[in-house]
């Protein structure tokens, strides 16, 4: 495979999505939230297409979504509340 060929099947170019696409999909509502997803939750960092334009590979976004938990995290009640319920 030459340097210019994509590693995708058939050499197809990746489908890129922009911030507005992420917003329309309900993944994020604003840039600070997106930055937290990238920094703290493993969301793909995307690629810079130009100085002020960032895009994400749609397949990477789908993969990240598929790896997300689907159930709520069960949090133990505060200790004070547990002791009160036991009494």
List the helices and strands and how they pair.
Blueprint lengths: L15 E2 L1 H6 L6 H11 L5 E4 L2 E5 H10 L11 H8 L1
Task: Outline the structure in words.
- By secondary structure, the chain is an alpha+beta fold.
- The protein is built from 4 helices and 3 strands; from the N terminus they run βααββαα.
- The chain has helices at residues 19-24, 31-41, 58-67, 79-86; strands spanning 16-17, 47-50, 53-57.
- A 3-stranded antiparallel sheet has the order 1-3-2.
- The chain is elongated and about 60 Å long.
What attributes does this structure have?
87 residues, alpha+beta, 3-stranded antiparallel β-sheet, 4 helices
What distance lies between the first and last C-alpha atoms, to the nearest angstrom? 70 Å
Number of helical regions:
4
SS-based class: alpha+beta
Could you describe the largest sheet, including whether it forms a barrel? 3 strands, antiparallel
Kindly provide the radius of gyration, computed on alpha-carbon positions and rounded to a whole number of angstroms: 20 Å
Helix content: 40-55%
> Which segments are poorly predicted (pLDDT under 50) over 5 or more consecutive residues?
1-6
- The total of beta strands comes to 3
Mean pLDDT: 84
């Amino acid at each position: 495979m030459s340097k210019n060929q994509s590693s995708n099947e058939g050499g197809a170019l990746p489908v890129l999505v922009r911030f507005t696409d992420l917003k329309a999909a309900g993944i994020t509502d604003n840039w600070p939230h997106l930055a937290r997803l990238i920094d703290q939750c493993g969301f793909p960092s995307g690629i810079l297409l130009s100085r002020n334009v960032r895009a994400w590979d749609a397949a990477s976004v789908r993969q990240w979504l598929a790896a997300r938990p689907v159930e709520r995290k069960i949090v133990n009640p505060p200790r004070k509340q547990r002791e009160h319920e036991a009494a």
